[in-house]
Amino acid sequence: MATTVSTIPVIDFGPFLTGDTAARKAVAAAMRQASQDWGFFYLSNHGMPDELLVRSFQASRAFFALPEAHKRELAWQSASSNRGYVAVRRERLNPNKPGDLKEAFNVGREEDLSHIPAAERPYRENRWPSEQPQFRDTALALFEGCVTAANRVLEAFALALDLPQQFFVDSHDQQHHTLRLLRYPPLPAGFQPQNGESRAGSHTDYGSITLLFQDAVGGLEVRTRDGRWVQATPIPGTVVINTGDLMQRWTNHVFCSTPHRVAVPKEHLTKDRYSIAFFCHPNDEAEIRCIESCSDAKNPPRYPPITAGQYLMERLNATY
Ligand SMILES: O=C(O)CCC(=O)C(=O)O
Ligand SMILES: [Fe+2]
């Protein structure tokens, strides 16, 4: 019997950004197929400036090199804020496994909070390391760059589903996204994971789409439809895009959210690994109701409508 060795698709986004209607439709169709088959794809020519990404990884490295006590002063406080520093083993992406061997720093949308009652501000306020003033500028520039790139991807998703181009973009315009810098600390040579511990336990992402930039170390693994784990090997110049549970629900499983994890790698485990994830979340009030072109007699709507805010809060509270 012939076996087909399949890998996570690499899609050239250039024709979507600069091409004619036919070229844009072809890119959108490729994304739809990849989202159906894998829930994951790499995007080349994604439009994010390389200089910004280089600067962001440098800023991340400098931030995580701060003394632990300084980082803890910026600790993550609540799911409703979802900002700040998350220490090693603090989070379990797979709630049945030990805490993840990673640390993280979350950034949300930066807003003018002067008109907000003081008691509510901590929930909407980013936390910044006072000893690194340039860190804030870089993180916010990266946030903006990710919003732009994510919106283009959301336009392609809309095109793939015969929706008005701005359908998803409009329901993300409050930018309830989370930018997350991640560091996976070095592990001792010969390190053997105990009780299924890993750098990040198997999970699906909660939101609509995730953009993931990874360094050259590797370790990200994606589950195939038949239950095997495949390496999402770093490919320079690309961003990994995956669809989250909310998008799966919205599209009635036409776009799938796929379990993935960061395993302790066989090589380079004594090196730290850095990645940057941008989790896109629709506006709190956005109603996540099965999209019409995603259901028919054979695939009737699988979920009742829910607001994005309610859904995401439930998922986040379960992780900590
Ligand atoms: O660091 C990575 O490669 C993946 C991280 C991830 O999947 C997550 O934080 O949701
Ligand atoms: Fe993830």
* Beta-strand segment tally: 14
Beta content: 15-25%
CATH architecture classification name: Sandwich
Total helices: the number is 8
The 3D shape can be described as: globular
Rounded to the nearest angstrom, the distance between the terminal CA atoms is 46 Å
CATH class: Mainly Beta
Q: How do the strands line up in the largest sheet?
A: 1-2-10-7-12-5-4-3
Query: What can be said about the biggest beta sheet?
Result: 8 strands, mixed
* Arithmetic mean of pLDDT: 92
Count the domains.
1
- State Rg: 19 Å
Q: Can you write the helix and strand succession as a string? A: EHHEHHEEHHEEEEEEHEEEEH
Class of secondary structure makeup: alpha+beta
Descriptive notes:
It contains eight helices and 14 strands. It has 320 residues and is α+β, with helices and mostly antiparallel strands. The chain has a single domain (2-319), classed as B-lactam Antibiotic, Isopenicillin N Synthase, Chain (Jelly Rolls, Sandwich), CATH 2.60.120.330. Strands 1-2-10-7-12-5-4-3 form an eight-stranded mixed β-sheet. Strand 8 and strand 9 (229-231) form a beta hairpin. Helix 2 (21-37) crosses helix 5 (133-160). The radius of gyration is 19 Å and the shape is globular. Residues 1-5 have low confidence and may be disordered. It binds 2-oxoglutaric acid and fe (ii) ion. The site of 2-oxoglutaric acid has 10 residues, from strand 7, strand 11 and strand 12.
